[in-house]
Amino acid sequence: MTNEAEADAWSARLGWAFGLISDDPAERAVALAHQDKATRNTRDALDRSNELWQLTLPLGTEEQYRESAFKRAREVYYEVGRHSLPGGLCEDLDGVAITAWPGLPYALLFLEWEARYPQEWTEHAKEWGTKQRLIRIMAASDHDETLRTKLTDLVEIVVQRAYRCKDREYVRVARAVDSDDLRRRLGTAAQSDHPWARLHADYVLWLLDRPDVPNTRHVWRTWLAGEMRAPATGG
Q: What sign results for the dihedral spanned by CA atoms 41, 100, 130, 167?
């Protein structure tokens, strides 16, 4: 399949999902309804697969997984799951550069959705493991200018809110796309009226100045206690 054909296939499955990050509440509501329907379809397909798994158990493992109805039910479950989030993002990159991956816009969409509309994300697609996996993929990848800008935007959004599960992973991203622009944005957040923004932005700036310091819970707690804090240089 050509890159263009792969991009078209992704769009056919998940193009609707861009409505999840729309500024228009009505457009988001339509996309959320689509997500919920796709999730129900996935759950129904899983129930059918599990039902056939139970029915074919007496065949033994090898015969069971060759049994046509059970095999087809597993295929349907896999295919149906690709039409919702985060199921559609389970694809293995297989060494493909992140910037060449047709799924990149949808992975970024998933992270932006969680960053901008955390309550809706939690209600309709909560999957902390996928969030962590995607953040780590983004941090470990080569970054063109477009991707760097998008990731910088995400770091800026995340540091300005109360901590959520796996947000600590964004330090990896901040270190990967460190720039004067990112430090300027973090410096602005560190001077904001929001206590969480001041705290998070100051901590990320502190770590950017110390690339060898691991971003562990121990380091965070020690820094928070004031034992390791020093003025950040970003601004």
A: negative
